[in-house]
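for the record, two folds in this file. i put them one after another cuz i was lazy. first one right below, seq on top, structure tokens after. the second one comes after a little note so u can tell where it starts
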Amino acid sequence: MNKQQWVEQIQQVLAEIDALPEPAVAQRESLQQLLISLEQQLMDGATDSDYSMLENIELIGVEIEAEHPVVSMMLRNLVATMNAMGV
């Protein structure tokens, strides 16, 4: 997966997060910050990302899974793909 595909996948997740209802505001803001930071790292050419950042993205995905399964699945797929590619 090239850098542009990563950015597109992150943008898709951000769009889904923007659509979350008000009760998920805290998770939405945290996720947005993490994903924007991850996107910036990718755009700057970083080949490895902070493991804790990916772990936090995954943990938030678990927290919102029951109420927002689509976003949770997208987050897990993003993290799994990045881990598989060694990012």
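(here's the note) second protein begins now
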Amino acid sequence: MNNSKSDQPVPLKRITFKSKGLQSFTNEILDKHQVMEILNISERTLKNLVSQGYLPYSPIGNRYYYLYSDLLRMMQRNRQWGKKPG
């Protein structure tokens, strides 16, 4: 097996809203930790969003990956207008 740099997996970039505008994320690939951080949700909530069909995913090996653009679509589909609760 050749251990050159090209054979090594490329790590996902850490995403923060402080460093980029929202539009620059459109094609970003996210892991579950990044999705949970962006949406400020637990792993259980993320699993519920996926299992209920709200959020599409791509399984690669034993991990799931998500597109930032799908997060935006999910938020837009579920957007509600009206008075704030409480």
